[in-house]
Amino acid sequence: MKRFVLFVPLVAGLALAYAPALAHTSTIAPVVASSAIYAPITVAEVEAAQKAWGEALVAISTEYDTKGHAAAKRLAEQVLDTAYGYTMGPVLFKPTLTMAPQTFRTTRDGALAYFVGGDKAYPNDGGFALKHWRKFQLENAGIVIAGNTAISMGNLMLWDDKNNMTKVDKTWGYVRGGDGKLRIVLHHSSLPYTPK
Amino acid sequence: MKRFVLFVPLVAGLALAYAPALAHTSTIAPVVASSAIYAPITVAEVEAAQKAWGEALVAISTEYDTKGHAAAKRLAEQVLDTAYGYTMGPVLFKPTLTMAPQTFRTTRDGALAYFVGGDKAYPNDGGFALKHWRKFQLENAGIVIAGNTAISMGNLMLWDDKNNMTKVDKTWGYVRGGDGKLRIVLHHSSLPYTPK
Amino acid sequence: MKRFVLFVPLVAGLALAYAPALAHTSTIAPVVASSAIYAPITVAEVEAAQKAWGEALVAISTEYDTKGHAAAKRLAEQVLDTAYGYTMGPVLFKPTLTMAPQTFRTTRDGALAYFVGGDKAYPNDGGFALKHWRKFQLENAGIVIAGNTAISMGNLMLWDDKNNMTKVDKTWGYVRGGDGKLRIVLHHSSLPYTPK
Amino acid sequence: MKRFVLFVPLVAGLALAYAPALAHTSTIAPVVASSAIYAPITVAEVEAAQKAWGEALVAISTEYDTKGHAAAKRLAEQVLDTAYGYTMGPVLFKPTLTMAPQTFRTTRDGALAYFVGGDKAYPNDGGFALKHWRKFQLENAGIVIAGNTAISMGNLMLWDDKNNMTKVDKTWGYVRGGDGKLRIVLHHSSLPYTPK
């Protein structure tokens, strides 16, 4: 458990007039809380959260196709509560297919409407997660870890049940929730730019 | 300088059988480094950085219109080095008008090409900052401060010299640089979604 | 709710050859989560946590003097679980009166033994919180806020029921717990140095 | 460089009525700035900073014994500027052998006086670094990494040129400086408690 390290002092430009006892050792026995709420987020955690997000989207689509809207909505609510940080404060969420004046969805209701539709307060929302998604692929352009936050940017490719592909530019920002698990507090998604 | 506070202990459910000397005072003389590299980012700092970004874009456009491309490029380089974190590591930058395979600009060269064009390595870049911008307006949907990082999301409206308006959905992520000033390490910009 | 700010661009050394529409406004409507787990710790929160610590120590002493050891121990456990971060990982705790090989109390058991004694595994612990404390005074030399952590250093003066005063040099380090409230993850306390 | 991962979706309790194309892959090519100012501090960095501190103390002592006070003071100033965060704000520093009213040394002058003495403003400072230290040993009780800060607690053993040993209880708190290297912003050192 304990690691003993022998330090040989290397002090540049230091003339030692005599030779004292020089050996000095260092005993290091760190006790580190690596999974605590305050622990830095790791790249592996970000990748796992991204994978979980894609799997959840496919799961909601499949739930909808096999069990109907009510079941899909229930699953979407579970996903929102475990993957996003709406219980901790506003989430900066700009979904792919939203328009003014409802472009940004800082509340859980707005996010739920976007994913499964059926909310009169969001009449343009058809339910993005109901589009029969069956597989996904992520390609990160970069991940930045800053203290105990993390942001990722890259492409998400989604295929529906007819194997049609949709590609989006995707940014996610993560913090830790009260249980130490990652929560999305930033989500900016947009269709690739195409010149007119 | 010193603040004296008289504390009256209120311990719920505590029966005091006798009356000891109860007055206990607290002297607090905090010495706090509020502008240090490690200090939390404030909303005011985020708003100031946003304002500076808009002003810099207008300035580059005006420099281009009045002094030409070389001057505009010099100014753009200054802006990149003071506003973005490219000297600290990769920046997650998805500009408004970029396409695959050059959608993401994690390097300073890629960002400079986007703003002022003229780089053979980025043949599709016409120079976004050269579009004769004259004024801007920002409308934040939200700002999240997480430790000593910050993210903002909202709309940016830009007007050119003919008063044509361009509106984009804009996300910025900030950290502190070595001088304690904010640097952009995340920038996701996209045109509003329009149904076909 | 919305704040409109008129920005007058001041670009040093910029010659404007003509006069375009210059007024550009900025609309800022921040939605900020100031009490979230990821929110920076404030000086006011640190001062409140320090005050709560002192009050809790007096409360445990008073509980002991009025209701006995079992009641004091129950209260000490509550205090440990709400004021310290032992449920999140090891706590770096060097109490005032501990000696090798039990100087450091990184576990909850070690901290409880220190405060209320009566644990055979810690035979030298008489119970620091049982020393009939009646009032306290804090004098901070400084508080440093770093991201969503905070550290404070200063003097704590404690008076017992006979008005005898004990003074210690005290350092506390704080993070946020899962409920967003401060938890001590560092506590170094020592008697003032006195030359022999 | 790119890592391809095949994801097999495992959605508990999900009945798949039909069999869509299930293979979904994820391509992850993270670009991470691990040495940036905003990067989390690692245990290895803390251990290296501790080792550097011990080596620096021995170096100042040796410089004093071989070259005299002026040389030792110059070296101490270099050490302070590279190891401590005085240029970033106040440092919470409670050295081993200081007394009221000069117990806490939140300024660089106070720290320098403690290490090499000779400052009339600190008449009790004999110069801790001049005590002919020749070797050191560190034994950490724990290290806590919180975002991009770190704290360590443990014992430091120091031997002088006559092989007399001094043992202290030592806490250090670290942040990153503008150059990305660790700086001490908290230092609480105390002699072990001995019952009278």
Structure, briefly:
4 copies of one chain form a homotetramer. Chain A is an alpha+beta fold. Chain A is built from 3 helices and 7 strands, in the order ββααβαββββ.
What does this protein structure show overall?
The structure is a homotetramer of 196-residue chains. The first copy, chain A, has 196 residues and is α+β, with helices and mostly antiparallel strands. Chain A has one domain: Nuclear Transport Factor 2, Chain: A (Roll). Chain A is 25% helix and 31% strand. Chain A has 3 helices and 7 strands. In chain A, the strands form 2 sheets. The first copy, chain A, has a 5-stranded mixed β-sheet with strand order 3-7-6-5-4, with helices on one face. A two-stranded antiparallel ribbon of chain A has the order 1-2. In chain A, helix 2 crosses helix 3. Chain A is globular. Chains B and C meet through strand 2, helix 1, strand 4 and strand 5 of B and strand 2, helix 1, strand 4 and strand 5 of C.
